[in-house]
Amino acid sequence: MPHHPPAPRSPEERRKSAIKDWAKYGGLAFQLLGACLAGVLIGRWLDTKMQLDRPLWAVFLTVLFMVASLYSLYKQLTR
Which of 52, 65, 68, 74 places its Cα 20 to 30 Å from the Cα of 6? Predict the structure, then answer.
């Protein structure tokens, strides 16, 4: 089966493709940021409710949410 090279794209198509890529990867960055922020806020709230001296829940949940978000990011990038 012969392989045909892709047709040359117009500058407008290349610009739209670049914007789409920026939106996709920018969204992934905000997803990671949001997960970390949620871990911090929920953890600090739990630490306050339990009257803990050290931010145990804040650290644990931040790391947990970040790992989960990185896994999700990996899955999205590999499909």
Answer: 74
4 within a domain of the structure (yes/no): no
Asked, for residue 26, whether it belongs to a domain, the answer is no
Distance CA 3, CA 6 (A): 9
Q: Is 17 in a helix, a strand, or coil? A: helix
Report the phi/psi class of residue 51: left, alpha or beta, with left for phi > 0 and alpha for psi in -120 to 50: left
* Global pTM value: 0.72
> Which amino acid, residue 22?
W
In this prediction, residue 44 carries a pLDDT of 97
Residues 40, 58 contacting (CB under 8 angstroms): yes
